[in-house]
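User
New here, explain this?
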Amino acid sequence: MENNSQYVFYKDREEWKDVQPVEQDEKQRSVVKINYSEKFVDVYNYIRAVMIKDERSERALHLTEDALILNAANYSVWYYRRNILSELKSNLEEELNFVAMCINENQKNYQVWYHRQWIVMELSKDLNNDLKEIIENELLLTETFLMDDNKNYHVWQYRHWISNTYRMWDSELAFTDKMLNQDCFNNSAWNYRYYVIQSVSGFTDTVVDQETDYILKFIKLSPENESSWNYLDGLYKKRDLYSQTRLIEFCQQLQQGDSEASLSPYLHSFSLDICLSRLRNIDKLQNGDCDRDSLIKQAIDTCNLLGEKLDRIRVNYWKYRLEKIAVEFGSELQ
């Protein structure tokens, strides 16, 4: 919010008398002209003037600060400010404080997060700086903002960049656990957990078993949570489902219950994937475990249930799945 009570216009400042302000050239392009405040017009008339000359001075740096407080989305001004900071070899730790203030007012602004990323990269080049402390502070900053808005894409993206660039993974799995226990519907946190594991250890058999324990608890608590099912699906994307007795029994138990869990479309969609995997690998199943006709009927019934009752908004998709089943297994749709 602008505060003009103590503001001195640049056009009235003695130290700026040598600069000829450059007004915005709108010509006839604007159907409806923007009603800029007098302060905004004053600041940007002068920012255009110094950018044309590419003046890299302390006064230009202060001018960019005023300009960015008025419009933190202006990429050109941020770029110009970075050039000045580099030229003057300014104190970038102080710059972190300025950009933190901008982020606080513009948490979903790409430009402010990119500028902070640039600062951290510059600070990390100086061997005299404590890189570990810098990165830990950045992780703490993102956590603070995520406590305010736990699904802010820009904050998650910045945390991705920090952890990946500087390989600071030690606390990240525990961090996702904290976020998910606060809100298990947080798809960003599930995605980040997957990303952390993939980056640190990969999805070995041991890790998949551990993560299966983890995810099934969340699914049992909230079977209607699509994010949890998507995470489970990701765990087994490159694994055959037909042999996963534990998952088969888990899904069967949920389906046979009388609660709303049995009506979860994500449960039945995942069960369909299991069914189709068993059909494709029926020669590997134990004798008497199931027969082909029963599995085909189960797949058809599941598609019909989803398309006609549980997931009607995607009825055409489930019809498509039925047609694929018919082509693949030579069944007659019922």
